[in-house]
Amino acid sequence: MQVGFIGLGQMGVAMAANLLRAGHETTVYNRTRAKAEALASAGAKVADRIADACRGEAVFTMLADDEAVEAAVYGDGGVLANLKKSAIHISSSTISVALSKRLAADHARAGQRYVAAPVFGRPEAAEAAKLFVVAAGEPDALRSAAPLFDAIGQRTFPVSDAAEAANLVKLSGNFLIASVIESLGEAMALVSKGGVDKNQYLDVMTSTLFGAPIYKTYGKLIADEKFEPPGFAAPLGLKDVRLALAAGDELQVPLPLASLLRDRFLTLLANGGDKLDWSAVGGLAAKDAGSTSGR
Amino acid sequence: MQVGFIGLGQMGVAMAANLLRAGHETTVYNRTRAKAEALASAGAKVADRIADACRGEAVFTMLADDEAVEAAVYGDGGVLANLKKSAIHISSSTISVALSKRLAADHARAGQRYVAAPVFGRPEAAEAAKLFVVAAGEPDALRSAAPLFDAIGQRTFPVSDAAEAANLVKLSGNFLIASVIESLGEAMALVSKGGVDKNQYLDVMTSTLFGAPIYKTYGKLIADEKFEPPGFAAPLGLKDVRLALAAGDELQVPLPLASLLRDRFLTLLANGGDKLDWSAVGGLAAKDAGSTSGR
Amino acid sequence: MQVGFIGLGQMGVAMAANLLRAGHETTVYNRTRAKAEALASAGAKVADRIADACRGEAVFTMLADDEAVEAAVYGDGGVLANLKKSAIHISSSTISVALSKRLAADHARAGQRYVAAPVFGRPEAAEAAKLFVVAAGEPDALRSAAPLFDAIGQRTFPVSDAAEAANLVKLSGNFLIASVIESLGEAMALVSKGGVDKNQYLDVMTSTLFGAPIYKTYGKLIADEKFEPPGFAAPLGLKDVRLALAAGDELQVPLPLASLLRDRFLTLLANGGDKLDWSAVGGLAAKDAGSTSGR
Amino acid sequence: MQVGFIGLGQMGVAMAANLLRAGHETTVYNRTRAKAEALASAGAKVADRIADACRGEAVFTMLADDEAVEAAVYGDGGVLANLKKSAIHISSSTISVALSKRLAADHARAGQRYVAAPVFGRPEAAEAAKLFVVAAGEPDALRSAAPLFDAIGQRTFPVSDAAEAANLVKLSGNFLIASVIESLGEAMALVSKGGVDKNQYLDVMTSTLFGAPIYKTYGKLIADEKFEPPGFAAPLGLKDVRLALAAGDELQVPLPLASLLRDRFLTLLANGGDKLDWSAVGGLAAKDAGSTSGR
Questions:
Q1: Which of C132, C180, C182, C183 to mutate to test the interface with D (most CBs of D within 10 A)?
Q2: Quick one: pLDDT at residue C294?
């Protein structure tokens, strides 16, 4: 297929490379052009303007947040004004439910199609085309986009005809991860002050009930208080918890654990944690307990 | 070894049977004698009194709570008064850190040995001798008890010389499970009110980031609102969260997520949930959101 | 002074009447014209359009929320486009810190002046010109507006040169009130389930430590479970807690009690409480405790 | 009346002095005898043993906590073993609901009477005989004790026939105060980081909606970060919140705000706050917000 790709961060560049590898003619755009050029050798056309990435049957956006997506979509030079009739805007960014809903409506009005397709997976998974794609939108649009999802991921989960449902699933997934971080942080603060070695504790837990990689990965970071460099930075964690709460607010679903997480992230950021990995939230319980790090 | 076993609930009966199967001469005691007699055909001696279960090299207690353990241990007819010098009291009940500490001191004073050895695993795992044993106490006592642990579990984790550390680990583990229940409850309340099918959502989550059986098991119960019959009853869940908080209080470790869980359990019990499985805590977020069950 | 007044709800109509009473030439505007006409007999000029209320030295806006204020201020027919140079926009609505900041900047750019002057007091206080005015903005603007504040209130508190500080104070004040509601709700749920009469309890508390009218007023509503008709509706309470949290988010100030309140308001609204007084939040603790009302 | 008084801390000594002043023959006992002797010049008989303070028609206990009261009441030399038939034990200590209930039952069994009569008021109020007495117990016992309450307080509130109800009211009152501390702490952290002077803010709030002395007193301590010397020490604050939660646990009343307060107190104590006034809890929100004190 002919496809555009807007947003070449760590995730985007890997996803675009896999589209190329799967044989899709891919035109890439990035605000900082250098990142786009790195893909030229892999066969990508490099666009100077967003509009030039919107000529094909589909265009991905993989950007940092609502503001970045709005900037790319709206305005004369944006996706909305330049995408062909029936072409599909595939939004893979982790954005708000509200914006996704608005994009769906605006594209429909313009005779275009819109699919929300956020992904689960770290950059390594993106490079290996092993992402999980959570997709939502009109069934025909999902069908059309399927080969593209196959190119970037190991499995696609179609969750709804309403595009914003995919964003809701993505946000709730990140909320679940943040909950794991908080619960491990509290548990380790407790057992550690009670004299149990944190790594040994983690070994017990992950060898028995909590074998999921997420417990191993985040548990290790918390046990070792190794919050730098960030794999997923704390401000992004706050953003996603905030968006989950905003979705809960809109739907009138109180989320007390998400509220607790939001307060934790704010505490972290207010105390110099903006460059840390979001797992640093898991270090706050020990701080509240007056436990000083051995480091 | 010659060993006694006090407390033949669903877990205890399976553990005692495995001790017998492994060739240990086992004398069993239960307040309701009928349960003890069921083990006679498997070779158990049935004791009429606690004292008679205390004649060997070790005696297990596997009872409901602090009160039950105190009742079995203290007093003229209790474990403390009847256990031989150097014999080991192996406490596998999920009890408070404070009581475990007190038992360690009292047995030491009496020239006896004490090991805290709570277990992870449901009754099926107990039957299959597949429990995980978290053990703490003096190294020589742990060594002496090792063959017994091998008879009931698939792996033993020695976590500390201080017996109560094992209880702390056990309590924190149950806190982690309760945290999973709460986080899944909130996430499902959110996506479900947003139009996503709960089972489909669970499939996405457990197929991607949260593959641990615990997410599958509890997620399914919450998605189906199937909280009866209880596998682990809500009042026991409250008890364990309460004990984790008590340990945190003693050690001065604030545990805001555990506090949230405690309030959830109280809400559940105050509204008729005392016969439900503790996963019913995962149904409260949906209730707060005004979502009515399809049932 | 020549002054305009936009927004004639229960509060606005009383404030405009007091401006007239104090001798200020007042032009009033309301989306629903009937409410404006009611003031004509008191000497008000009735404007057909917002622009016509912007001809004087100052114009008040007293509207429901950010959206209403934005609609009144921006656009060709709005306050910003029609206010004279050096004239003052006095914003008395309870709006977000962010919008107040933006209004300050936009008016400055247009050569106009801007004062944030939210008020404390119920409609009765507004009628009696007994409001408390919390005012912030450039000192000269505050000086110019002083006679107007004197006309509507019993005392003016100038809190900062930065207009949005007044909004922050107002929001935090409403947060304090909501905190009183929650604390009374929990306390009464506790003592009441313990057998103490709620009204008698309230009498003890307000006769001893908590003599402030706010404890008497809200305590009585909660004790009697009399949440209708709303004096200040629950959705407005949620709005203000939400704005306090948004301000905390922007300033990186975690507010766990405000988070708790937000979840309470969402629970209330999700369960049919949108027509109730915000004191109904004080009834939720009893509901969680499974206490059924005597009514 | 002939009366005994056990426990001569800051509060007790003032209460005993007022009993003497009102003409009651008072025998005083304190573990540290020196404090008792100070009352001899005012006419008190000084008892060497608790038993000697139990010879009259009534005996007050005014002690630090459950442990101290249990130590004074139980055992051969205690109140229970030495009080005459029909004489009244008046328990003014802030103790648990559970202990109060147990005392009521044990005294009834011994043919004695029991009244719970905790008080509201700081030491100055105790000296001026201006305490508020919250009293509960059998009506005849309350009637008999009335002259004693009149001697120490400005007003007595009989709240129930069940003695422990008075303790519940006292605990819930301290919970309300702690809630004021937390809410002021959060509000001030917010406005202060937003550029508003904390003392000026407090002036606005206490001049308008929150005129109660409690807002002025605690607000001032928080604004000035003046948490030493303690008027009411943080560990006592934690104790009372813990007892309120324990009562809630027993009655199945979830108290999320009390849970938050408990975590705050633990954080304070875990970080060196055990010698501070309980209002120091109101300084934690600013700390979480990364706001550094000017001191």
A1: C183
A2: 43
Predicted TM-score (pTM) of the model is 0.96
Angle between helices B256-270 and D234-251 (to 10 degrees): 30
CA-nearest residue to D272 within chain B is B252
Inform me whether the C-beta atom of residue B224 falls under 8 Å from chain D C-beta atoms. no
Read off the pLDDT of residues A82-129 as tens digits, 9 standing for 90 and up: 999 999 999 999 999 999 999 999 999 999 999 999 999 988 999 999
Average pLDDT of the segment spanning C197-211: 95
Residue A292 pLDDT exceeds 80: no
pLDDT given at position A122: 85
Three-state secondary structure string covering chain A: CEEEEECCCHHHHHHHHHHHHCCCEEEEECCCHHHHHCCHHHCCEECCCHHHHCCCCEEEECCCCHHHHHHHHCCCCCHHHHCCCCCEEEECCCCCHHHHHHHHHHHHHCCCEEEECCEECCHHHHHCCCEEEEEECCHHHHHHHHHHHHHHEEEEEEEECCCHHHHHHHHHHHHHHHHHHHHHHHHHHHHHHCCCCHHHHHHHHHHCCCCCHHHHHHHHHHHCCCCCCCCCEHHHHHHHHHHHHHHHHHHCCCCHHHHHHHHHHHHHHHCCCCCCEHHHHHHHHHHHCCCCCCC
Confirm whether B2-162 and B168-288 share one CATH topology: no
pLDDT at C122: 85
DSSP state, residue D63: -
pLDDT, averaged across chain C: 96
Amino acid D122: pLDDT: 85
CA distance B31 to chain A (A): 31
Average pLDDT estimate for A229-250: 96
Smallest Cβ–Cβ distance between D212 and the set C173, C177, C211 belongs to C211
Which residues of C have a catalytic role annotated? 170
Residues 6+ apart with CB under 8 A from D41: none
Q: What tens digit of pLDDT does each residue of D76-132 get?
A: 999 999 999 999 999 999 999 999 999 999 999 999 999 999 999 988 999 999 999
> pLDDT value at position D293?
57
Q: Do D272 and A288 touch (CB under 8 A)?
A: no
Domain ranges of chain A: 2-162, 168-288
Mean pLDDT by 10 residues, chain B (295 residues): 96 97 98 92 96 97 97 96 98 98 98 98 93 98 98 97 98 98 98 97 95 95 96 95 98 98 98 97 98 60
Across chain A, mean pLDDT equals: 96
Cα separation, D98 vs D262, in Å, equals: 19
Would you say the ipTM is above 0.90? Answer: yes
Query: Nearest residue of D to residue B254 by CA position?
Result: D263
Q: Which of D84, D130, D170, D220 is catalytic?
A: D170
Phi first, then psi: give them for residue A158, nearest 5 degrees: -80, 120
Mean pLDDT of the region C99-113: 98
| Superfamily of structural domain A2-162 | NAD(P)-binding Rossmann-like Domain (3.40.50.720)
Write down the architecture of domain B168-288 according to CATH: Orthogonal Bundle (1.10)
Interface of D with C in 151-210 (CB under 8 A): 155, 157, 159-160, 162, 164-165, 168-169, 172-173, 175-177, 179-180, 182-184, 186-187, 189-191, 193-197, 200-201, 203-205, 207-210
Neighbour-count burial for D61-81, b at 16+ CB within 10 Å, e otherwise: bbbebbebbbebbeeeebbbe
Q: How many CB pairs under 8 A join A and B?
A: 202
Neighbours of chain A (3+ CB pairs under 8 A): B, C, D
**D292 vs A contacts (CB less than 8 Å):** none
Inter-residue contact D15 to D131 (CB < 8 Å)? yes
Active site residue B193: no
